[in-house]
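In this section we walk through a basic example: taking a raw amino acid sequence and producing a predicted 3D structure, encoded as C-alpha coordinates. The instruction is simple. Fold the sequence below.
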Amino acid sequence: MQFDLNVERRVMKTKKILTDEQKKLDIDLWIIALTATAVFVVYAMIGSRLMTFCKDSSISVWPRLFAAASMQFGIAGLGITIVCILRKKTFPRFGLKKENLLKAIGATILCFVPYIIYIFVSGQFEGYEPLSIMVTPDLHKTGIIATIIGTLVIALFWGFFEGFNYAVICNIIDRRYPVNSKFFSWGALVCTLMGILFHPMSFDLLGILELITTFIALYGMLIIYKHTRNAWGCVFAFLFIWNAI
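The resulting C-alpha coordinate sequence is shown next.
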Protein backbone atom coordinates (compact mmCIF):
# COMPACT_ATOMS: atom_id res chain seq x y z
CA MET A 1 0.00 0.00 0.00
CA GLN A 2 2.85 2.35 0.87
CA PHE A 3 4.57 1.40 -2.41
CA ASP A 4 1.45 2.24 -4.42
CA LEU A 5 1.14 5.59 -2.63
CA ASN A 6 4.74 6.52 -3.43
CA VAL A 7 4.27 5.54 -7.07
CA GLU A 8 1.12 7.64 -7.26
CA ARG A 9 2.92 10.63 -5.77
CA ARG A 10 5.77 10.33 -8.30
CA VAL A 11 3.27 10.04 -11.15
CA MET A 12 1.36 13.10 -9.92
CA LYS A 13 4.61 15.04 -9.58
CA THR A 14 5.61 14.09 -13.13
CA LYS A 15 2.19 15.09 -14.44
CA LYS A 16 2.44 18.43 -12.64
CA ILE A 17 5.82 19.15 -14.26
CA LEU A 18 4.46 18.27 -17.71
CA THR A 19 1.37 20.35 -17.10
CA ASP A 20 3.46 23.38 -16.18
CA GLU A 21 5.41 23.05 -19.43
CA GLN A 22 2.22 22.59 -21.42
CA LYS A 23 0.74 25.71 -19.85
CA LYS A 24 3.78 27.72 -20.94
CA LEU A 25 3.46 26.38 -24.48
CA ASP A 26 -0.25 27.21 -24.49
CA ILE A 27 0.56 30.77 -23.44
CA ASP A 28 3.16 31.01 -26.21
CA LEU A 29 0.62 29.88 -28.80
CA TRP A 30 -1.98 32.35 -27.51
CA ILE A 31 0.55 35.19 -27.68
CA ILE A 32 1.36 34.35 -31.31
CA ALA A 33 -2.29 33.87 -32.28
CA LEU A 34 -3.57 37.02 -30.56
CA THR A 35 -0.72 39.15 -31.90
CA ALA A 36 -1.38 38.06 -35.49
CA THR A 37 -5.14 38.48 -35.02
CA ALA A 38 -4.69 42.02 -33.68
CA VAL A 39 -2.59 42.96 -36.70
CA PHE A 40 -5.16 41.40 -39.04
CA VAL A 41 -7.87 43.50 -37.39
CA VAL A 42 -5.79 46.62 -37.95
CA TYR A 43 -5.20 45.59 -41.57
CA ALA A 44 -8.93 44.98 -42.06
CA MET A 45 -9.57 48.57 -40.97
CA ILE A 46 -6.79 50.35 -42.88
CA GLY A 47 -5.80 47.77 -45.50
CA SER A 48 -7.24 49.56 -48.53
CA ARG A 49 -5.70 52.88 -47.52
CA LEU A 50 -2.38 51.19 -46.78
CA MET A 51 -2.34 49.54 -50.20
CA THR A 52 -3.13 52.87 -51.88
CA PHE A 53 -0.35 54.52 -49.89
CA CYS A 54 2.20 51.80 -50.71
CA LYS A 55 1.41 51.93 -54.44
CA ASP A 56 1.65 55.72 -54.69
CA SER A 57 4.91 56.36 -56.54
CA SER A 58 4.67 60.09 -55.83
CA ILE A 59 5.54 59.34 -52.19
CA SER A 60 9.08 58.47 -51.10
CA VAL A 61 9.69 54.73 -51.28
CA TRP A 62 11.03 54.46 -47.73
CA PRO A 63 7.86 55.24 -45.72
CA ARG A 64 5.93 52.97 -48.09
CA LEU A 65 8.44 50.16 -47.65
CA PHE A 66 8.53 50.41 -43.86
CA ALA A 67 4.74 50.72 -43.61
CA ALA A 68 4.35 47.47 -45.54
CA ALA A 69 7.23 45.85 -43.62
CA SER A 70 5.64 46.77 -40.27
CA MET A 71 2.38 45.11 -41.25
CA GLN A 72 4.21 42.05 -42.58
CA PHE A 73 6.28 41.75 -39.39
CA GLY A 74 3.17 42.11 -37.25
CA ILE A 75 1.55 39.16 -38.98
CA ALA A 76 4.62 36.94 -39.35
CA GLY A 77 7.33 37.74 -36.85
CA LEU A 78 6.11 39.88 -33.97
CA GLY A 79 4.41 37.05 -32.08
CA ILE A 80 7.38 34.69 -32.17
CA THR A 81 9.72 37.57 -31.26
CA ILE A 82 7.63 38.34 -28.17
CA VAL A 83 7.68 34.66 -27.19
CA CYS A 84 11.46 34.43 -27.60
CA ILE A 85 11.96 37.53 -25.44
CA LEU A 86 9.48 36.29 -22.83
CA ARG A 87 11.10 32.85 -22.63
CA LYS A 88 14.63 34.24 -22.98
CA LYS A 89 15.31 32.06 -26.02
CA THR A 90 17.43 33.02 -28.99
CA PHE A 91 16.38 32.36 -32.58
CA PRO A 92 19.17 29.78 -33.15
CA ARG A 93 17.51 27.52 -30.57
CA PHE A 94 14.69 27.03 -33.08
CA GLY A 95 16.96 25.70 -35.80
CA LEU A 96 19.10 28.51 -37.21
CA LYS A 97 22.28 26.46 -37.21
CA LYS A 98 24.86 24.86 -39.53
CA GLU A 99 24.04 21.23 -38.75
CA ASN A 100 21.99 19.65 -41.57
CA LEU A 101 21.89 22.99 -43.41
CA LEU A 102 22.34 21.62 -46.95
CA LYS A 103 20.13 18.62 -46.20
CA ALA A 104 17.31 20.89 -44.99
CA ILE A 105 17.53 23.23 -47.98
CA GLY A 106 17.88 20.44 -50.55
CA ALA A 107 14.97 18.41 -49.20
CA THR A 108 12.81 21.52 -48.94
CA ILE A 109 13.45 22.35 -52.60
CA LEU A 110 12.27 18.84 -53.53
CA CYS A 111 9.05 19.40 -51.58
CA PHE A 112 8.37 22.52 -53.66
CA VAL A 113 8.96 20.84 -57.04
CA PRO A 114 5.27 19.89 -57.55
CA TYR A 115 4.24 23.48 -56.73
CA ILE A 116 6.83 24.91 -59.15
CA ILE A 117 5.62 22.56 -61.89
CA TYR A 118 2.04 23.65 -61.21
CA ILE A 119 2.98 27.33 -61.56
CA PHE A 120 4.54 26.67 -64.97
CA VAL A 121 1.83 24.31 -66.26
CA SER A 122 -1.01 26.61 -65.17
CA GLY A 123 0.56 29.55 -67.01
CA GLN A 124 1.04 31.64 -63.85
CA PHE A 125 4.79 32.01 -64.18
CA GLU A 126 5.64 35.61 -65.09
CA GLY A 127 9.33 35.57 -64.27
CA TYR A 128 11.58 34.65 -61.40
CA GLU A 129 11.63 37.63 -59.02
CA PRO A 130 13.01 36.84 -55.56
CA LEU A 131 12.79 39.62 -52.97
CA SER A 132 10.31 41.58 -55.06
CA ILE A 133 7.25 43.36 -53.63
CA MET A 134 5.02 46.20 -54.81
CA VAL A 135 7.55 48.95 -54.03
CA THR A 136 10.54 47.17 -55.61
CA PRO A 137 10.36 48.99 -59.00
CA ASP A 138 10.47 52.37 -57.23
CA LEU A 139 13.22 51.10 -54.95
CA HIS A 140 15.42 50.33 -57.96
CA LYS A 141 15.15 53.96 -59.06
CA THR A 142 16.76 55.27 -55.86
CA GLY A 143 20.32 54.10 -56.59
CA ILE A 144 22.44 51.05 -55.90
CA ILE A 145 23.04 51.64 -52.17
CA ALA A 146 19.36 52.31 -51.45
CA THR A 147 18.40 49.29 -53.54
CA ILE A 148 20.71 47.04 -51.53
CA ILE A 149 19.39 48.34 -48.19
CA GLY A 150 15.79 48.08 -49.32
CA THR A 151 16.31 44.56 -50.66
CA LEU A 152 17.80 43.50 -47.32
CA VAL A 153 14.70 44.89 -45.57
CA ILE A 154 12.49 42.86 -47.92
CA ALA A 155 14.62 39.76 -47.35
CA LEU A 156 14.30 40.18 -43.60
CA PHE A 157 10.54 40.65 -43.36
CA TRP A 158 9.19 38.80 -46.41
CA GLY A 159 11.78 36.03 -46.44
CA PHE A 160 13.41 35.38 -43.09
CA PHE A 161 10.58 36.16 -40.68
CA GLU A 162 7.83 34.64 -42.80
CA GLY A 163 9.69 31.35 -43.23
CA PHE A 164 11.07 31.26 -39.69
CA ASN A 165 7.61 32.05 -38.30
CA TYR A 166 6.35 28.72 -39.67
CA ALA A 167 9.27 26.85 -38.11
CA VAL A 168 8.83 28.36 -34.63
CA ILE A 169 5.07 27.83 -34.52
CA CYS A 170 5.51 24.27 -35.75
CA ASN A 171 8.13 23.66 -33.07
CA ILE A 172 5.90 24.98 -30.26
CA ILE A 173 2.86 22.96 -31.39
CA ASP A 174 4.93 19.79 -31.72
CA ARG A 175 6.30 20.23 -28.21
CA ARG A 176 2.80 20.84 -26.89
CA TYR A 177 1.22 17.95 -28.81
CA PRO A 178 4.05 15.46 -29.51
CA VAL A 179 3.47 12.41 -31.71
CA ASN A 180 5.73 9.43 -32.40
CA SER A 181 5.55 9.48 -36.17
CA LYS A 182 8.08 10.20 -38.88
CA PHE A 183 5.58 11.57 -41.33
CA PHE A 184 2.96 13.26 -39.16
CA SER A 185 3.22 16.42 -37.10
CA TRP A 186 0.43 18.48 -35.59
CA GLY A 187 2.62 21.54 -35.95
CA ALA A 188 3.25 20.89 -39.64
CA LEU A 189 -0.45 20.23 -40.28
CA VAL A 190 -1.70 23.33 -38.45
CA CYS A 191 0.90 25.62 -40.04
CA THR A 192 0.20 24.21 -43.51
CA LEU A 193 -3.55 24.75 -43.15
CA MET A 194 -2.86 28.23 -41.80
CA GLY A 195 -0.72 29.02 -44.85
CA ILE A 196 -3.38 27.70 -47.24
CA LEU A 197 -6.31 29.47 -45.60
CA PHE A 198 -4.56 32.85 -45.63
CA HIS A 199 -4.29 32.76 -49.42
CA PRO A 200 -7.02 33.02 -52.08
CA MET A 201 -8.60 29.69 -52.97
CA SER A 202 -10.74 28.36 -55.78
CA PHE A 203 -12.25 24.92 -56.24
CA ASP A 204 -12.00 24.36 -59.96
CA LEU A 205 -9.45 21.87 -61.31
CA LEU A 206 -6.54 24.32 -61.21
CA GLY A 207 -7.55 25.51 -57.76
CA ILE A 208 -7.59 21.96 -56.41
CA LEU A 209 -4.19 21.27 -57.97
CA GLU A 210 -2.85 24.41 -56.37
CA LEU A 211 -4.19 23.33 -52.96
CA ILE A 212 -2.58 19.90 -53.31
CA THR A 213 0.81 21.17 -54.45
CA THR A 214 0.80 23.95 -51.84
CA PHE A 215 0.00 21.40 -49.14
CA ILE A 216 2.86 19.15 -50.30
CA ALA A 217 5.26 22.11 -50.33
CA LEU A 218 4.45 23.57 -46.91
CA TYR A 219 3.80 20.30 -45.06
CA GLY A 220 6.89 18.71 -46.58
CA MET A 221 8.99 21.75 -45.68
CA LEU A 222 7.92 21.48 -42.04
CA ILE A 223 8.38 17.71 -41.84
CA ILE A 224 11.91 18.28 -43.13
CA TYR A 225 12.35 20.85 -40.37
CA LYS A 226 11.07 18.32 -37.82
CA HIS A 227 13.63 15.73 -38.92
CA THR A 228 16.66 17.98 -39.49
CA ARG A 229 15.91 20.51 -36.72
CA ASN A 230 17.25 23.10 -39.13
CA ALA A 231 15.01 26.07 -39.95
CA TRP A 232 17.07 27.42 -42.84
CA GLY A 233 15.12 25.25 -45.26
CA CYS A 234 11.95 27.17 -44.34
CA VAL A 235 13.71 30.52 -44.69
CA PHE A 236 15.23 29.52 -48.04
CA ALA A 237 11.81 28.48 -49.37
CA PHE A 238 10.27 31.87 -48.62
CA LEU A 239 13.27 33.82 -49.84
CA PHE A 240 13.83 32.07 -53.15
CA ILE A 241 10.69 30.05 -54.01
CA TRP A 242 7.38 31.03 -52.37
CA ASN A 243 7.76 34.79 -52.77
CA ALA A 244 9.79 34.57 -55.97
CA ILE A 245 7.52 32.79 -58.47
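Looking at the output, two observations stand out. The mean pLDDT is 91. Residues 59 and 198 are 29 Å apart (CA to CA). In the next section we compare this with other chains.
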